[in-house]
Each structure stands twice: as structure tokens, then as C-alpha cells.
């Protein structure tokens, strides 16, 4: 039985686009579910509509509490029988309520080699720190910030003349690859989570 993959986004949507295309082209054995954004008018929603994927803007301002906003999102995800949630540039922290509703079924992409540089502006943090290598990480989301079990990582060099833009672009290319690969492994039932470690079944 193919798994249904849905996406939470807040902006540009290039990671969502890469994974959705991989599913549509048959490189990942899955079905695309829906795309939900917490921001109106973002590029990710346009891409979803172009790909004929159901796309929703769930406005956080319409809900008094964070949990009510999440509840509305969970209802939509369930309505479309979502097995896996991919947070692809979703700029909102998920509460334990959401995390438990999709325990070990939420994959996030982060533009640094975790546990270095969690949170926002990871590429800026890496440049300011002066690391010589950075990269990206896919992980399952737990209750903390970018702290869940790591699925895959890819390193890229950091050059002396890098700007946030050049480093981000180098990392982004790899983000798309490891996110596609991680989602594929999940959909093939090849990821096993034991405490904070993820094992790939060969
Ligand atoms: C990516 O760098 C991702 O790692 C980070 O936010 C950015 C989103 O880019 N969490 P996009 O919307 O997928 O193009």
C-alpha cells in the first residue's frame, strides 16, 4: 500500500517541489497528499496548484491558541489520509500535541549539520562561527527544536568568500537530494527509529 505524503510550508517551496516531483515521476513510491501553508500568497502554494495538488492556507491568526491552529492542520492531514508529514521550510515550531499525533512520521529538512546551528538562519550562524564544513540534515521531529533522530546528513565545504546566498545555494542542492532519499526510505518502510537513532534497513 503506497503511503501518502503531505507537506507543511511557509515560503518558496523548493524542497516541497523536489519531493513532489520525485513522487509524480515515480522515483518515490508514494502518493502526494496536500500542501498546507501558514502564510498566504507564498510560492509553495502556487507550485502546488500548478501540480494540481490540493493546497491550503491555514491562517494562524484565526485561532486563539497554537494548538487550535495545529488541530485544524491535523484534521486536514487526516482527511487526506496522510502517512508522512514533511516540514519543508515550515517556519513554525510544532507543539508536543502535533508531534504526538504524527509520532516518528514528521520529517524535517534543516540547512546545517545538526546538532550544530539549530533554529533559524543556520547558514548565517555557520558563516559567523567560521566553520569550514556545513551541510544539511534530515530528521524526524521530536518535542525539541531541530533535535529529533537524524535520518541523513550531507556535508558541503564553506569557502572564505562565501556569502549567505552562495552557501545557502550550495546547501540547498544537497537538501533536495537527502530529503528525496529520506522520504523514499520512509515510504519503503526502511527507516527504523530506536530511541534517538535511525537505522536504515538494507
Ligand atoms: C531550506 O533551506 C530549509 O532547509 C529551511 O528553510 C529553507 C526552505 O526552502 N528549513 P524551500 O522553501 O524548501 O525552498
How would you describe this structure to a colleague?
- The chain has 202 residues and is an alpha/beta fold.
- It has a single domain, classed as 3-Layer(aba) Sandwich (Rossmann fold), CATH 3.40.50.170.
- 35% of the residues lie in helices and 25% in strands.
- The chain is built from six helices and nine strands.
- The strands form two sheets. The chain has a seven-stranded mixed β-sheet with strand order 3-2-1-4-5-6-7, with helices on both faces. A two-stranded antiparallel sheet has the order 8-9.
- Helix 1 packs parallel to helix 6.
- The longest helix has 24 residues.
- The chain is globular, with a radius of gyration of 16 Å.
- The model has no long low-confidence stretch (mean pLDDT 98).
- The site of 5-O-phosphono-beta-D-ribofuranosylamine has 12 residues, from helix 1, strand 5 and helix 6.
Amino acid at each position: 500500500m503506497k503511503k501518502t505524503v503531505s507537506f507543511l510550508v511557509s515560503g518558496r517551496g523548493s524542497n516541497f517541489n523536489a519531493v513532489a516531483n520525485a513522487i509524480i515521476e515515480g522515483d518515490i513510491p508514494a502518493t502526494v497528499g496536500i500542501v498546507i501553508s501558514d502564510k498566504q500568497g507564498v510560492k509553495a502554494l502556487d507550485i502546488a496548484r500548478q501540480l494540481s495538488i490540493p493546497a491550503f492556507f491555514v491562517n494562524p491568526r484565526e485561532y486563539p491558541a497554537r494548538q487550535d491552529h495545529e488541530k485544524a492542520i491535523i484534521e486536514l492531514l487526516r482527511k487526506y489520509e496522510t502517512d508522512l508529514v514533511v516540514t519543508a521550510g515550515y517556519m513554525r515550531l510544532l507543539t508536543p500535541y502535533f508531534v504526538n499525533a504524527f509520532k516518528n512520521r514528521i520529517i524535517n529538512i534543516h540547512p546545517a549539520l545538526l546538532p550544530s546551528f539549530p533554529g533559524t538562519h543556520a547558514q548565517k550562524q555557520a558563516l559567523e562561527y567560521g566553520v569550514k564544513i556545513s551541510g544539511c540534515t534530515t530528521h524526524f521531529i521530536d518535542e525539541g527544536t531541530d533535535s529529533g533522530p537524524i535520518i541523513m546528513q550531507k556535508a558541503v565545504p564553506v569557502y572564505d568568500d562565501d556569502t549567505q546566498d552562495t552557501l545557502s545555494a550550495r546547501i540547498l542542492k544537497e537538501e533536495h537530494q537527502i530529503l528525496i532519499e529520506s522520504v523514499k526510505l520512509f515510504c519503503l518502510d526502511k527507516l527504523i527509529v530506536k530511541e534517538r537513532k535511525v537505522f536504515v534497513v538494507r
